[in-house]
Hints:
The protein is α+β, with helices and mostly antiparallel strands. It has helices spanning about 5-30, 40-60, 65-85, 100-110, 110-135, 150-230, 235-260, 275-290, 310-330, 360-365, 380-390; strands at about 270-275, 295-300, 305-310, 335-345, 345-355, 395-400, 405-415. The protein folds into 3 domains: about 5-190, no CATH class; about 195-260; about 270-415, Heat Shock Protein 90 (2-Layer Sandwich). The chain has 11 helices and 7 strands. The model has no long low-confidence stretch (mean pLDDT about 80).
Amino acid sequence: MSTEKKDILRLILLRLVIVTSLVVSAVIIQFSTSVFLPLSPFYYVVISFYLLSFVYLVLYIWGKNLPLQVSFQIFFDLLLITALVYISGGVQGSFFFLYIFVIISASYVISKRAAYLTAALSAILYGFLVDGMYFGLIPYYSQEETIEISLGLVNYNIFMAWGAFFLVAFFMNFLADSLRKTRDQLMMAQKELEIKNRLATAGEVSAQLAHEVRNPLAAISGSVQVLKDELGLKGEQRELMDIIVSESRRVSHSIEQFLNLASPGKKTFSTINLTEILKETLTLLQSSGEMDGNVQIKGNYSSKNIQYFGNNNQFKQLFWNILRNALKAMPSGGSLAIDFEKIKKDEIQLKFADSGIGMAEDKRERIFEPFYSGFDNGQGLGMAVVRKIVDDYKGKVRVDSEPDKGTEITITLPLRKA
Protein backbone atom coordinates (compact mmCIF):
# COMPACT_ATOMS: atom_id res chain seq x y z
CA MET A 1 0.00 0.00 0.00
CA SER A 2 1.34 3.46 -0.82
CA THR A 3 1.74 5.94 2.01
CA GLU A 4 -0.75 8.75 1.55
CA LYS A 5 0.25 12.25 2.54
CA LYS A 6 -3.01 12.96 4.36
CA ASP A 7 -2.51 9.85 6.53
CA ILE A 8 0.90 11.12 7.65
CA LEU A 9 -0.68 14.43 8.65
CA ARG A 10 -3.28 12.54 10.66
CA LEU A 11 -0.49 10.59 12.37
CA ILE A 12 1.33 13.79 13.33
CA LEU A 13 -1.85 15.35 14.72
CA LEU A 14 -2.79 12.15 16.57
CA ARG A 15 0.56 11.96 18.38
CA LEU A 16 0.18 15.62 19.38
CA VAL A 17 -3.26 14.91 20.83
CA ILE A 18 -1.98 11.87 22.75
CA VAL A 19 1.07 13.66 24.15
CA THR A 20 -1.01 16.68 25.17
CA SER A 21 -3.47 14.36 26.90
CA LEU A 22 -0.58 12.77 28.80
CA VAL A 23 0.68 16.17 29.94
CA VAL A 24 -2.76 17.20 31.17
CA SER A 25 -3.20 13.86 32.94
CA ALA A 26 0.25 14.15 34.55
CA VAL A 27 -0.51 17.61 35.90
CA ILE A 28 -3.90 16.51 37.28
CA ILE A 29 -2.48 13.37 38.93
CA GLN A 30 0.53 15.24 40.33
CA PHE A 31 -1.75 17.69 42.10
CA SER A 32 -4.03 14.93 43.40
CA THR A 33 -1.34 12.55 44.76
CA SER A 34 2.23 12.75 46.00
CA VAL A 35 3.22 9.39 44.52
CA PHE A 36 4.01 9.71 40.84
CA LEU A 37 6.84 9.43 38.40
CA PRO A 38 9.54 12.12 38.42
CA LEU A 39 8.09 15.00 36.48
CA SER A 40 11.33 16.56 35.26
CA PRO A 41 12.44 13.67 33.00
CA PHE A 42 8.81 13.09 32.01
CA TYR A 43 8.57 16.62 30.69
CA TYR A 44 11.92 16.25 28.89
CA VAL A 45 10.52 13.29 27.00
CA VAL A 46 7.29 15.21 26.28
CA ILE A 47 9.27 18.17 24.97
CA SER A 48 11.16 15.75 22.72
CA PHE A 49 7.81 14.54 21.37
CA TYR A 50 6.75 18.11 20.59
CA LEU A 51 10.09 19.00 18.95
CA LEU A 52 9.98 15.91 16.79
CA SER A 53 6.39 16.70 15.84
CA PHE A 54 7.54 20.10 14.62
CA VAL A 55 10.32 18.44 12.60
CA TYR A 56 7.84 15.92 11.14
CA LEU A 57 5.46 18.73 10.20
CA VAL A 58 8.25 20.58 8.36
CA LEU A 59 9.19 17.39 6.51
CA TYR A 60 5.52 16.80 5.72
CA ILE A 61 5.24 20.25 4.16
CA TRP A 62 8.45 19.59 2.24
CA GLY A 63 6.81 16.45 0.91
CA LYS A 64 9.93 14.39 0.10
CA ASN A 65 10.47 10.70 0.99
CA LEU A 66 7.20 10.40 2.90
CA PRO A 67 7.42 6.59 3.41
CA LEU A 68 10.90 6.98 4.90
CA GLN A 69 9.69 9.85 7.09
CA VAL A 70 6.84 7.87 8.59
CA SER A 71 9.14 4.89 9.24
CA PHE A 72 11.57 7.10 11.18
CA GLN A 73 8.65 8.71 12.98
CA ILE A 74 7.38 5.34 14.20
CA PHE A 75 10.89 4.20 15.20
CA PHE A 76 11.68 7.30 17.27
CA ASP A 77 8.23 7.21 18.86
CA LEU A 78 8.99 3.68 20.06
CA LEU A 79 12.29 4.90 21.56
CA LEU A 80 10.58 7.80 23.35
CA ILE A 81 7.82 5.53 24.66
CA THR A 82 10.50 3.15 25.94
CA ALA A 83 12.09 6.12 27.74
CA LEU A 84 8.73 6.92 29.35
CA VAL A 85 8.35 3.31 30.45
CA TYR A 86 11.86 3.42 31.93
CA ILE A 87 11.45 6.59 34.00
CA SER A 88 8.03 5.41 35.21
CA GLY A 89 9.53 2.28 36.75
CA GLY A 90 9.63 -0.29 33.95
CA VAL A 91 7.33 -3.22 34.70
CA GLN A 92 5.73 -1.21 37.52
CA GLY A 93 4.74 1.60 35.19
CA SER A 94 1.71 1.73 32.93
CA PHE A 95 3.03 3.60 29.90
CA PHE A 96 3.59 0.43 27.86
CA PHE A 97 0.04 0.91 26.50
CA LEU A 98 1.44 3.74 24.34
CA TYR A 99 3.14 1.15 22.16
CA ILE A 100 -0.35 0.16 20.99
CA PHE A 101 -0.97 3.57 19.38
CA VAL A 102 2.23 3.26 17.36
CA ILE A 103 1.25 -0.24 16.18
CA ILE A 104 -2.16 1.07 15.11
CA SER A 105 -0.50 3.94 13.23
CA ALA A 106 1.85 1.58 11.41
CA SER A 107 -1.03 -0.62 10.29
CA TYR A 108 -3.19 2.24 9.06
CA VAL A 109 -0.52 4.44 7.47
CA ILE A 110 2.00 1.93 6.09
CA SER A 111 0.96 -1.72 5.78
CA LYS A 112 0.04 -4.96 7.54
CA ARG A 113 3.65 -6.06 7.52
CA ALA A 114 4.72 -2.78 9.14
CA ALA A 115 2.19 -3.37 11.93
CA TYR A 116 3.70 -6.75 12.78
CA LEU A 117 7.24 -5.37 12.55
CA THR A 118 6.28 -2.52 14.88
CA ALA A 119 4.67 -4.98 17.31
CA ALA A 120 7.83 -7.11 17.23
CA LEU A 121 10.11 -4.09 17.81
CA SER A 122 7.84 -2.93 20.66
CA ALA A 123 8.07 -6.38 22.24
CA ILE A 124 11.88 -6.40 21.91
CA LEU A 125 12.30 -2.92 23.41
CA TYR A 126 9.88 -3.56 26.27
CA GLY A 127 11.23 -7.03 27.01
CA PHE A 128 14.87 -5.88 26.92
CA LEU A 129 14.10 -2.94 29.21
CA VAL A 130 12.12 -4.89 31.81
CA ASP A 131 14.51 -7.87 31.91
CA GLY A 132 17.50 -5.56 31.97
CA MET A 133 16.08 -3.69 34.97
CA TYR A 134 15.22 -6.91 36.78
CA PHE A 135 18.67 -8.49 36.32
CA GLY A 136 20.47 -5.24 37.14
CA LEU A 137 21.84 -4.64 33.65
CA ILE A 138 19.87 -1.40 33.50
CA PRO A 139 19.66 0.60 36.75
CA TYR A 140 16.35 1.98 37.93
CA TYR A 141 16.00 5.66 37.17
CA SER A 142 15.25 6.30 40.85
CA GLN A 143 16.45 3.94 43.53
CA GLU A 144 13.23 4.67 45.46
CA GLU A 145 11.36 2.78 42.76
CA THR A 146 13.37 -0.42 43.36
CA ILE A 147 11.16 -3.11 44.89
CA GLU A 148 11.41 -6.85 45.07
CA ILE A 149 9.41 -8.55 42.35
CA SER A 150 9.48 -12.18 41.29
CA LEU A 151 10.84 -13.33 37.97
CA GLY A 152 7.54 -15.06 37.29
CA LEU A 153 5.63 -11.81 37.63
CA VAL A 154 8.13 -10.02 35.40
CA ASN A 155 7.79 -12.65 32.68
CA TYR A 156 4.00 -12.64 33.09
CA ASN A 157 3.86 -8.89 32.47
CA ILE A 158 6.21 -9.18 29.50
CA PHE A 159 4.19 -11.93 27.83
CA MET A 160 0.92 -10.12 28.52
CA ALA A 161 2.33 -7.00 26.86
CA TRP A 162 3.63 -9.01 23.91
CA GLY A 163 0.28 -10.71 23.46
CA ALA A 164 -1.46 -7.33 23.52
CA PHE A 165 0.95 -5.92 20.93
CA PHE A 166 0.43 -8.71 18.40
CA LEU A 167 -3.30 -8.98 19.01
CA VAL A 168 -3.65 -5.26 18.33
CA ALA A 169 -1.57 -5.66 15.15
CA PHE A 170 -3.76 -8.56 14.00
CA PHE A 171 -7.12 -6.91 14.66
CA MET A 172 -5.96 -3.53 13.39
CA ASN A 173 -4.80 -5.13 10.14
CA PHE A 174 -8.21 -6.75 9.80
CA LEU A 175 -9.98 -3.44 10.41
CA ALA A 176 -7.57 -1.55 8.14
CA ASP A 177 -8.23 -4.03 5.32
CA SER A 178 -11.96 -3.58 5.75
CA LEU A 179 -11.55 0.19 5.76
CA ARG A 180 -9.42 0.14 2.61
CA LYS A 181 -11.87 -2.13 0.81
CA THR A 182 -14.78 0.10 1.85
CA ARG A 183 -12.90 3.17 0.68
CA ASP A 184 -12.07 1.54 -2.66
CA GLN A 185 -15.70 0.48 -3.11
CA LEU A 186 -16.86 4.01 -2.32
CA MET A 187 -14.48 5.45 -4.90
CA MET A 188 -15.69 2.94 -7.48
CA ALA A 189 -19.31 3.79 -6.66
CA GLN A 190 -18.54 7.49 -7.12
CA LYS A 191 -16.96 6.79 -10.51
CA GLU A 192 -19.94 4.66 -11.48
CA LEU A 193 -22.29 7.48 -10.51
CA GLU A 194 -20.28 10.00 -12.54
CA ILE A 195 -20.39 7.73 -15.59
CA LYS A 196 -24.14 7.18 -15.25
CA ASN A 197 -24.72 10.91 -14.90
CA ARG A 198 -22.70 11.52 -18.05
CA LEU A 199 -24.60 8.77 -19.84
CA ALA A 200 -27.86 10.40 -18.84
CA THR A 201 -26.64 13.79 -20.10
CA ALA A 202 -25.38 12.25 -23.32
CA GLY A 203 -28.75 10.56 -23.78
CA GLU A 204 -30.62 13.83 -23.53
CA VAL A 205 -28.24 15.52 -25.98
CA SER A 206 -28.39 12.59 -28.40
CA ALA A 207 -32.18 12.56 -28.53
CA GLN A 208 -32.28 16.27 -29.42
CA LEU A 209 -29.39 16.05 -31.87
CA ALA A 210 -30.78 13.04 -33.69
CA HIS A 211 -34.13 14.72 -34.36
CA GLU A 212 -32.45 17.90 -35.59
CA VAL A 213 -29.85 16.31 -37.88
CA ARG A 214 -31.00 12.88 -38.99
CA ASN A 215 -33.67 13.80 -41.52
CA PRO A 216 -31.75 16.66 -43.24
CA LEU A 217 -28.67 14.44 -43.43
CA ALA A 218 -30.63 11.62 -45.09
CA ALA A 219 -32.00 14.12 -47.61
CA ILE A 220 -28.52 15.45 -48.42
CA SER A 221 -27.03 11.98 -48.82
CA GLY A 222 -29.91 10.80 -51.02
CA SER A 223 -29.77 13.92 -53.21
CA VAL A 224 -26.01 13.58 -53.75
CA GLN A 225 -26.34 9.94 -54.79
CA VAL A 226 -29.07 10.84 -57.32
CA LEU A 227 -26.99 13.71 -58.73
CA LYS A 228 -23.91 11.50 -58.97
CA ASP A 229 -25.77 8.93 -61.06
CA GLU A 230 -27.71 11.41 -63.25
CA LEU A 231 -24.87 13.80 -64.04
CA GLY A 232 -22.47 11.04 -65.03
CA LEU A 233 -19.54 12.64 -63.25
CA LYS A 234 -16.05 11.28 -63.70
CA GLY A 235 -12.62 11.65 -62.19
CA GLU A 236 -12.14 14.11 -59.37
CA GLN A 237 -15.76 15.30 -59.36
CA ARG A 238 -17.05 11.76 -58.84
CA GLU A 239 -14.50 11.23 -56.04
CA LEU A 240 -15.78 14.37 -54.32
CA MET A 241 -19.34 13.08 -54.54
CA ASP A 242 -18.19 9.74 -53.08
CA ILE A 243 -16.53 11.59 -50.21
CA ILE A 244 -19.79 13.44 -49.48
CA VAL A 245 -21.75 10.17 -49.42
CA SER A 246 -19.19 8.32 -47.27
CA GLU A 247 -18.90 11.20 -44.79
CA SER A 248 -22.70 11.40 -44.63
CA ARG A 249 -22.77 7.73 -43.75
CA ARG A 250 -20.13 8.31 -41.05
CA VAL A 251 -22.17 11.12 -39.52
CA SER A 252 -25.27 8.94 -39.77
CA HIS A 253 -23.43 6.21 -37.87
CA SER A 254 -22.55 8.72 -35.15
CA ILE A 255 -26.21 9.65 -34.86
CA GLU A 256 -27.11 5.97 -34.56
CA GLN A 257 -24.61 5.75 -31.72
CA PHE A 258 -26.30 8.70 -30.05
CA LEU A 259 -29.68 7.05 -30.45
CA ASN A 260 -28.45 3.81 -28.93
CA LEU A 261 -27.01 5.79 -26.04
CA ALA A 262 -30.31 7.56 -25.44
CA SER A 263 -32.50 4.48 -26.10
CA PRO A 264 -35.72 6.52 -26.13
CA GLY A 265 -37.65 3.83 -27.96
CA LYS A 266 -39.22 0.72 -26.57
CA LYS A 267 -37.20 -2.44 -27.18
CA THR A 268 -38.74 -5.65 -28.47
CA PHE A 269 -37.35 -8.77 -26.80
CA SER A 270 -37.33 -12.31 -28.13
CA THR A 271 -35.18 -15.43 -27.97
CA ILE A 272 -32.06 -14.69 -30.00
CA ASN A 273 -28.90 -16.61 -30.87
CA LEU A 274 -25.85 -14.62 -29.76
CA THR A 275 -23.48 -16.79 -31.78
CA GLU A 276 -25.36 -16.08 -35.01
CA ILE A 277 -25.52 -12.36 -34.25
CA LEU A 278 -21.77 -12.30 -33.69
CA LYS A 279 -21.12 -14.13 -36.96
CA GLU A 280 -23.32 -11.63 -38.82
CA THR A 281 -21.41 -8.76 -37.25
CA LEU A 282 -18.08 -10.27 -38.26
CA THR A 283 -19.36 -10.68 -41.82
CA LEU A 284 -20.42 -7.02 -41.91
CA LEU A 285 -16.98 -5.92 -40.72
CA GLN A 286 -15.29 -8.03 -43.38
CA SER A 287 -17.53 -6.71 -46.16
CA SER A 288 -16.97 -3.11 -45.03
CA GLY A 289 -13.22 -3.55 -45.33
CA GLU A 290 -12.54 -2.81 -41.67
CA MET A 291 -11.28 -6.33 -40.99
CA ASP A 292 -8.62 -7.66 -43.34
CA GLY A 293 -6.62 -10.87 -43.44
CA ASN A 294 -4.05 -9.56 -40.95
CA VAL A 295 -6.46 -10.18 -38.05
CA GLN A 296 -6.96 -13.76 -36.94
CA ILE A 297 -10.28 -14.54 -35.25
CA LYS A 298 -10.21 -17.49 -32.88
CA GLY A 299 -12.03 -18.81 -29.83
CA ASN A 300 -14.91 -21.17 -29.10
CA TYR A 301 -17.73 -18.85 -30.19
CA SER A 302 -18.38 -20.71 -33.46
CA SER A 303 -18.95 -24.01 -31.67
CA LYS A 304 -21.30 -22.55 -29.07
CA ASN A 305 -25.04 -22.13 -29.41
CA ILE A 306 -25.91 -19.43 -26.88
CA GLN A 307 -29.60 -18.66 -26.74
CA TYR A 308 -30.61 -15.48 -24.95
CA PHE A 309 -33.79 -13.51 -24.36
CA GLY A 310 -33.04 -10.00 -25.52
CA ASN A 311 -33.10 -7.46 -28.31
CA ASN A 312 -31.38 -8.41 -31.55
CA ASN A 313 -30.35 -4.85 -32.49
CA GLN A 314 -28.85 -4.13 -29.09
CA PHE A 315 -26.51 -7.09 -29.31
CA LYS A 316 -25.56 -6.23 -32.88
CA GLN A 317 -24.58 -2.80 -31.62
CA LEU A 318 -22.73 -4.27 -28.64
CA PHE A 319 -20.69 -6.68 -30.78
CA TRP A 320 -20.08 -4.05 -33.45
CA ASN A 321 -18.58 -1.55 -31.02
CA ILE A 322 -16.39 -4.07 -29.19
CA LEU A 323 -15.09 -5.63 -32.41
CA ARG A 324 -14.35 -2.27 -34.05
CA ASN A 325 -12.41 -1.12 -31.00
CA ALA A 326 -10.41 -4.36 -31.05
CA LEU A 327 -9.60 -3.86 -34.74
CA LYS A 328 -8.53 -0.26 -34.14
CA ALA A 329 -6.22 -1.49 -31.38
CA MET A 330 -4.50 -3.82 -33.91
CA PRO A 331 -3.63 -1.54 -36.86
CA SER A 332 -0.84 -3.88 -37.95
CA GLY A 333 -2.88 -7.02 -37.42
CA GLY A 334 -3.01 -9.55 -34.61
CA SER A 335 -5.39 -12.03 -33.04
CA LEU A 336 -8.82 -11.64 -31.48
CA ALA A 337 -10.08 -14.45 -29.25
CA ILE A 338 -13.86 -14.62 -28.72
CA ASP A 339 -15.20 -17.08 -26.17
CA PHE A 340 -18.77 -17.69 -25.05
CA GLU A 341 -19.50 -19.69 -21.89
CA LYS A 342 -22.31 -20.51 -19.52
CA ILE A 343 -20.46 -20.03 -16.25
CA LYS A 344 -23.51 -20.73 -14.08
CA LYS A 345 -27.02 -22.00 -14.56
CA ASP A 346 -28.27 -18.45 -14.66
CA GLU A 347 -25.30 -16.55 -16.18
CA ILE A 348 -23.41 -16.35 -19.45
CA GLN A 349 -20.00 -14.85 -20.11
CA LEU A 350 -18.83 -13.18 -23.33
CA LYS A 351 -15.08 -12.64 -23.53
CA PHE A 352 -13.17 -10.65 -26.18
CA ALA A 353 -9.35 -10.65 -25.97
CA ASP A 354 -7.23 -8.84 -28.55
CA SER A 355 -3.45 -8.69 -28.95
CA GLY A 356 -3.43 -4.97 -29.67
CA ILE A 357 -1.75 -1.92 -28.22
CA GLY A 358 -3.55 -2.13 -24.89
CA MET A 359 -3.99 0.86 -22.61
CA ALA A 360 -2.69 2.34 -19.39
CA GLU A 361 -4.69 2.35 -16.17
CA ASP A 362 -5.82 5.98 -16.50
CA LYS A 363 -7.31 5.31 -19.95
CA ARG A 364 -8.86 2.04 -18.80
CA GLU A 365 -10.68 3.82 -15.99
CA ARG A 366 -12.22 6.29 -18.46
CA ILE A 367 -13.08 3.85 -21.22
CA PHE A 368 -16.85 4.01 -20.54
CA GLU A 369 -17.05 7.78 -20.31
CA PRO A 370 -19.11 9.33 -23.13
CA PHE A 371 -17.06 11.39 -25.61
CA TYR A 372 -13.76 9.98 -24.34
CA SER A 373 -11.81 7.98 -26.90
CA GLY A 374 -8.40 6.36 -26.82
CA PHE A 375 -8.15 6.57 -30.63
CA ASP A 376 -7.34 9.64 -32.71
CA ASN A 377 -10.40 9.27 -34.95
CA GLY A 378 -12.74 7.98 -32.23
CA GLN A 379 -15.88 9.71 -31.05
CA GLY A 380 -15.93 8.24 -27.54
CA LEU A 381 -19.40 6.69 -27.85
CA GLY A 382 -18.84 3.03 -28.66
CA MET A 383 -17.89 1.74 -25.22
CA ALA A 384 -20.42 4.07 -23.58
CA VAL A 385 -23.09 2.33 -25.66
CA VAL A 386 -21.69 -1.08 -24.68
CA ARG A 387 -21.83 -0.10 -21.01
CA LYS A 388 -25.40 1.12 -21.30
CA ILE A 389 -26.58 -2.06 -23.04
CA VAL A 390 -24.92 -4.24 -20.40
CA ASP A 391 -26.52 -2.14 -17.65
CA ASP A 392 -29.92 -2.53 -19.33
CA TYR A 393 -29.57 -6.30 -18.91
CA LYS A 394 -28.35 -5.98 -15.28
CA GLY A 395 -24.99 -7.36 -16.33
CA LYS A 396 -21.37 -6.52 -15.60
CA VAL A 397 -18.48 -5.58 -17.87
CA ARG A 398 -14.82 -5.78 -16.89
CA VAL A 399 -11.84 -4.45 -18.83
CA ASP A 400 -8.33 -5.82 -18.28
CA SER A 401 -5.55 -4.19 -20.26
CA GLU A 402 -1.87 -3.33 -20.18
CA PRO A 403 0.15 -1.29 -22.67
CA ASP A 404 1.48 -3.47 -25.52
CA LYS A 405 -0.16 -6.57 -24.01
CA GLY A 406 -3.64 -6.29 -25.46
CA THR A 407 -7.09 -5.80 -23.96
CA GLU A 408 -9.60 -8.30 -22.61
CA ILE A 409 -13.26 -7.34 -22.22
CA THR A 410 -15.43 -9.71 -20.19
CA ILE A 411 -19.21 -9.29 -20.15
CA THR A 412 -21.30 -11.26 -17.66
CA LEU A 413 -25.05 -11.34 -18.26
CA PRO A 414 -27.79 -12.95 -16.21
CA LEU A 415 -30.04 -15.29 -18.14
CA ARG A 416 -33.50 -13.83 -18.71
CA LYS A 417 -36.78 -15.65 -18.97
CA ALA A 418 -38.99 -15.17 -21.99
